[in-house]
Specification:
Elements (H helix, E strand, L loop, with lengths): L6 H16 L20 H15 L14 H16 L5
Helix pairs in contact: 1-2, 1-3
Length: 92
């Protein structure tokens, strides 16, 4: 997928997914909101959210992330980095 999508678009779409899964109004979801502490998600809900994000953006989260994905903003940053890495031509 080579569609150029910026951080605001990714954040909007991630917040839509989170809002739908957790029944939280989109405008109440802040970038620094923790999925568990602030938004009340349990581990299964977080897993479902991550799977939906993977499907939406054609990315894969590592089983053991090297970065903190506990907040909406960190997850948006990861998605952006993963999409950018996938679009960067390799020089093999």
């Amino acid at each position: 997928m080579t569609t150029n999508v910026g951080r605001p678009d990714i954040a909007f779409r991630v917040k839509e997914i989170v809002s739908a899964q957790l029944n939280v109004p989109k405008d109440e979801i802040e970038n620094d909101a923790s999925f568990t502490a602030d938004l009340g998600a349990d581990s299964l809900e977080v897993t479902q959210i991550m799977m939906l994000i993977e499907d939406e953006f054609w990315i894969t989260f590592p089983e053991r992330p090297v970065t903190d994905l506990s907040t909406v903003g960190n997850t948006v940053d990861f998605v952006l980095a993963a999409r950018n890495a996938a679009q960067t031509p390799r020089c093999d």
